[in-house]
Amino acid sequence: MKKLREDYSMEDLEAVNLAADWSDISQGLRKDLGHQLHSQWIKPIQVGGFCEDTGTLDLYLPTEFSANWVQDRFADRLSLAWKIARSNVRNVRIGVHPGRRQVADLNLADNALGGRRAANDSGHGGVIAIANDAMGNAGFVSSVGLDPSLTFGAFVTGEANILACNAAQRMAASEQPQFSPLYLKAATGQGKTHLLHAIGHAYLSSHPRARIFYCSAERFMVEFVQALKQNQMIEFKARLRSFDLLLVDDIQFIIGKASAQEELLYTIDALLAEGKRLVFAADRAPQALDGVEPRLLSRLSMGLVADMQAADIELRRSILESKLTRFAPLEVPDDVIDFLARTITRNVRELVGGLNKLIAYAQLTGQEVSLQLAEEQLTDILSANRRRITIDEIQRTVCQFFRIDRSEMSSKRRARAVVRPRQIAMYLSKVLTPRSYPEIGRKFGGRDHSTVIHAVRLIEDLRTRDADMDGDVRSLLRQLEN
Question: Is the pTM of this model over 0.90?
C-alpha cells in the first residue's frame, strides 16, 4: 500500500476538526429542526475559516438569499451550538463565500427573466435552474444550476434502483417518453436528487436549446408567495409554463398549501397538454402524501411511479469502488470497503460521506487507510447505522436458509449438512455482532472459543475459493442486514 504524504499543516488539522464539529452540530440541528428545514437551509452551509484572535468563525451559504434567511432565523442557534462545541468561538459570521461568483436568486416574476437571464443556486434541494440561449452565438449555457458531477455516468446501478435509472434515462432521451410525469420515490440519501440532475444534463445534451426548471417544492412555494405578494401571478404562471422540462424535488413539502397545489396542478396540465416532460421526486409514494388535493395526487401518479429501494450490500460495495477512482493512487484495502458496505446501511449519502471522511483524515495525517482507522474515525456514523443483530436472529435465519432444525445450532451432530451451516452461523455472529469468541461459543451449545475461531477462519477461506459458499454467505448477509 502506498503511503500518503507525511507532512501536514496545522491549518489542515484545524479544517478536519472544524468539519468534525460541524458534522456533530448539523446532526443535532437536524433532530431539533426536522428534515425539511435542515435539508433546505442548514445542510448547504459550508464551514469557512476561524480567526483565533477575534474568535470569529465564518459560515458560508451558496447565495445571498439563503445567507440572509439563515442569518434571520438561525443565527442565534448556530452561534450557541458552536460556542458549546468550541469554547474559543465568540462570534459566528454568516455570509456568501467571498470567492464565489455572486449570482442573483431567481425570481420568476422578474421581467428580465423572460429575456436572456439564468439563475443558479448550487445548494441541492433548493435550486431553480434555467437553461436557454443565454449566450447567443458566443456559446450555450447547458448546465446552469445543475451539479456537473451528478450525471448518469456517475450513477451506480443495482437491483434496488435499476428501474428508476432506466426510467430517468427514457425521460431524458431525444424521443418522446411513453410516460409523463415520472415520479421517483426513495428514502433520504438513496439517489433521487442525483437522478433529477442527471435527467437535466442528459436532456440538455439531446435538446441543447431547452429551458429547464429545477427546484425543491419548498423553493417553489417561496417563489409562488413572492409572486402573489407582488401581484405578478400572471408573469409567474406564464414563465413557469414556458419550460420544456420540469424537475421538482421533495414534492412532499408542498403538503397542505392549497393555493400552491392548485397552481402546480394547472401547470402540470398545461405542460402535459403541450407534450412537455415532468419529473417529481419524494420520499413517499403519491398515495401517501397526506394533505394533497386528490386531483393533484392523480396527476402525480398518472405516469410512472419508480420506487428506489435501499441499496443492498452489493450495490453499496459497487458505489464505494466507483468513488475510489477519484482518490488514485490511494489504495483502500478490500476489508475496509467490505466493512463500510456492511455497516453503513441507512443511505448512500452517509456511505459516501463516511468514505470521504476516512480518506480525508488519512490524507491530512499521513496515515494509511486501515480497518482500525475506519473504526476509530467513523464512530458517529457507525453507531447511527448499527442495527442490533443478535446471534439468535442469525441462527434462526441460517436454519431457515439451509432448512435444518434450530436445535442443530447447539447439537453435537457432526454430519456435514449440519456442521457447515453451524460454522456459517458462527462466522456471521463474529462479523455482524460485537460478541467475543467465548460468548459466541456459549450460544452454540457451550463450544470452546477455539472451535469458533476455526469456523470463522474456515468460512473466510472457503469464501475465497468456493463461489457457491460465497454466494450463500452474501445472501444471508443481505437477509440479516435488510
Answer: no
